[in-house]
Write a structure and sequence with these properties.
Elements lengths: L34 H20 L10 H12 L15 E2 L2 E2 L6 H16 L7 H18 L6 H15 L13 H12 L6 H17 L4
Antiparallel strand pairs: 1-2
Helix pairs in contact: 1-2, 1-5, 3-4, 4-5, 4-7, 6-7
């Protein structure tokens, strides 16, 4: 991820590396210096926080931008000082740049008033309606990329919570690997033109895999 020259990024804690990590691990509360160890910690905390968050929101809850910050803080707040806060540096993946940091607060307000208001609570009954809701919300959140790290997993967590409102407990994202992972990234980028069909296909596969795993039709 590439920081923007607009900021004095060396002065921002979210862009500082942990001392002794050789620049591979962001500065953290646990003073972890090995990337593999940090990956394990983040994964373990992610698994632990999901059940807690599933009990935090009701079926009729309309999710907000504040809730999304709560999800991020509940997961990474014990690890990073900036857990739950919008990023202050610009980031990209390869040649694709996400929303500029200075626009994030307003974009999240728009996200709150738009997709989150339209598609949550996710009380839809048909798979077509559910996949549309998940695809639009997930795509728009990924394009904003509001946090320094962990956006994809927060996006998946929000999708899990929305699916729970629709009566689906858990979502199986395990198939998004290899070629499918590249298709997922392409689906996110398609959202720039408000084309959500590729992401709908992604979530159609996710729902199908989830139902098969649970032995549902």
């Amino acid at each position: 991820m590439t920081p923007s020259h607009r900021y004095e990024t060396s002065q921002l804690i979210e862009n500082q590396a942990e001392l002794g990590s050789h620049g591979r691990v962001l500065k953290n509360r646990l003073h972890i210096t090995r990337k593999r160890e940090m990956d394990i910690i983040e994964a373990e905390l992610y698994a632990l926080v999901q059940p807690k968050l599933m009990g935090m929101f009701t079926k009729d809850h309309r999710f907000t931008s504040t809730d999304i910050c709560t999800l991020h803080r509940a997961w990474l707040g014990e690890v990073y000082e900036w857990g739950g806060d919008y990023r202050q540096v610009n980031v990209s993946k390869g040649s694709f740049s996400f929303a500029m940091a200075r626009h994030i607060p307003q974009l999240m307000i728009d996200f709150d008033r738009g997709p989150l208001k339209e598609f949550t609570p996710c009380l839809f009954e048909t798979d077509t309606e559910i996949t549309t809701a998940l695809a639009v919300v997930h795509t728009e959140l990924m394009l904003i990329h509001p946090f320094r790290e962990g956006n994809g997993r927060v996006g998946r967590l929000l999708a899990v919570l929305m699916a729970l409102q629709a009566g689906l407990r858990g979502l199986d994202f395990s198939g998004i690997i290899g070629k499918k992972r590249k298709e997922y990234y392409a689906a996110v980028q398609s959202g720039l033109a408000h084309d959500y069909e590729p992401m709908k296909q992604v979530f159609t596969s996710v729902l199908l895999r989830t139902r098969r795993r649970r032995g549902q039709s």
